[in-house]
Amino acid sequence: MEETISLRELMETLKKRISLILFITLTAVIVSGGVSFFLLTPVYQSSTQLLVNQSKTEQPVINQGEIQTNLQLMKTYNVIIKSPAILEKVISELKLDMTTSQLNSKITVASEGDSQVLNLSVQDTDPNKAAEIANKTASVFQNEIPTIMNVNNVSVLAKAEIGENQSPIKPKPLLNIAIAMVVGLMVGVGIAFLLEYLDNTVKTEQEVEKLLGLPVLGSITRIKDQEEKRTSRMQRKSSVRGETVGS
């Protein structure tokens, strides 16, 4: 019985504060949509792939030991690609107006699972510039790795290309709006329950009985303003008629 009453009270609280909850949720959705569509700058991503293979030898058979060595070098290559030795040459050849730290923040290098393929991705507000930086970084790394590591086992597997009507990877307005709707709904419900908790006024006969532990013998009904005006007009009309008949 207590659970039923508790659930009923919760539903009544939500029903009473529904306008506040909807207002907060709608505000969150509008703000999120406005920021996503009009304030945030779209960011595009272009990727190129590098293959780390075994060194060329006269033996046609693939050496498993060399493959394992190449796999172990993947982490080293990840660091070298984003090192100043590579990025400074990229900045110089492309004449980029940025520092190595700024360029480093645009580049992401990751291996494709346990394969010998490195995925080099570049994010920028200009899709053409992102593809250009990705291809140039791969090219510079391929040319410099023989000098740095004294090996020649890196080749470009796929160059970065610009697709037709390329979509930005961020922001994602629909996702942001959905998240804002959920957060706004949660905040609205939380504020509704907080206001209900802070409201210690007595409004119904049931609350009086619950607080005092005494039965309610009677109650005074509150007459609305319109009903009061209607009653006063009817009383005035009745008095006027009475005076007319008496005269």
Automatic annotation (TrEMBL):
Record-annotated membrane-spanning stretches: 20-40, 174-195
Record bears the keyword Oxidoreductase: no
Topology relative to the membrane: Multi-pass membrane protein
Pfam family, one: GNVR
Chief place where the protein resides: membrane
Coiled-coil stretches: none
Subcellular location: Cell membrane
Segments forming domain Tyrosine-protein kinase G-rich: 145-194
Superkingdom of source: Bacteria
Cited InterPro entries: Bact_polysacc_biosynth/exp, GNVR, LPS_length_determ_N, P-loop_NTPase
Disordered, as annotated region: 226-247
Keywords carried by this UniProt record: Cell membrane, Membrane, Transmembrane, Transmembrane helix
Domain Polysaccharide chain length determinant N-terminal: 3-94
Listed PANTHER family: FERRIC ENTEROBACTIN TRANSPORT PROTEIN FEPE, TYROSINE-PROTEIN KINASE
Family per record: Belongs to the CpsC/CapA family.
The protein's name: YveK family protein
Organism taxonomic ancestry: Bacteria, Bacillati, Bacillota, Bacilli, Bacillales
